Amino acid sequence: MDPYAALRFKEFNVFLGVRFAMVFAWSMQFIVIEWQVYSLTKDPLSLGLIGLMEIIPAIVMALFAGHVVDQNEKRNLLVKCILGFSVISLGLFIISLPSVVAEADTTTILYCIYLLVFLGGIVRAFLGPTVFSLLALIVPKKVYPNAATWSSTTWQLASVLGPALAGFSIGWIGVHWSMCLVFFFSLMALMALLQISRKPILNPKLGEAVMDSLKEGLRFVFGTKAILGALTLDMIAVLFGGAVALLPIYAQDILQVGAEGFGILRAAPAVGAAVTMLGSTRFPLHRSAGRKLLLAVFAFGICMIVFGLSTIFWLSVIALFLSGAVDGISMVIRQTILQLKTPDHMRGRVASVNSMFVGSSNELGAFESGLTAKYMGTVVAVVFGGCMTLATVGLTAILSPSFRKLDLQKDIELHESTS
Q1: What angle do CA 158, 160, 162 make, to 5 degrees?
Q2: Residue span of the structural domain in which 30 resides
């Protein structure tokens, strides 16, 4: 298989640029918000509330967003999503002005941050399904697996550089000008997106009633064991196994490495995932996909336990790096399953369910981590999450032998023959 097959399409390269800029801006913004909120409150629960404020609208709006995506032209819809994000980042830039911070009380600033994060959750509900659907309209079916791998790799590279720059920029130029950089990258994404042409709407049921559309999407996801198994496994692992929300506590209080160390810690998982994903362009993961996904999530849980117990900076970085490496395997396999198993006219709705299962679990996981850290202690909370991840893998392997035996080779051959 040609490892650069998808890159031979001009619009796909533009798409990767847009995806990189948006993920970079979003991940950088989230890190800056985390740092500012914890610096203002010194309360682990306040970090969890950031995730909760984003997840509430993302979950509530997800299924409706999938319906809207399947009923509308994807390029223009993505333009609107990026414009919405740009307005939010501009708002965060304004409320982080030194004069505003000096005059306003902490509670008011927190409420403004949470409100803007809430609005960002609404934008995110539409953004994910739109990006997923647009990708399938840019490249032919025969290169879907390769395109999914490059798209996921770009996501991870942006997730590496966004948090890293956020950590360093907080120390160098402060929170306010770091927010300005976020706004700048969102504008770059918008300008790049305009180079992609409008795409046809492939849904044969345009004008379908919302409830009928949502029911059809849910029936498809819950009736397709490969998709349901991958989403459920990843959701539980991220929900209980993620320690990212607690990194400001580790950086400031446990490891005592400051803003720069925080940036390194936050970027380490994404570096590991990016390395894995780049490797997967040459060594595809579709054979024995179910077994590989189970092993990857199990290893992720082990890494989280090691990180939670570590008080040595370099050991913590290695544990996070390895957690990202195995999580990269999980992401590539999941995205390949979704691209291969989802019909064109249902991509928006399936991607919305994916965002509810997996994307939203990041924020729910942030809230769960903040809550357990407040009442159980930070270290215990991370170790507990890792143990829950191991238990989830064990149950999935025992209760779903068909998923354990999942292999995607036949699906790839079918797509190649019909392209």
Answers
A1: 60
A2: 6-195+209-418
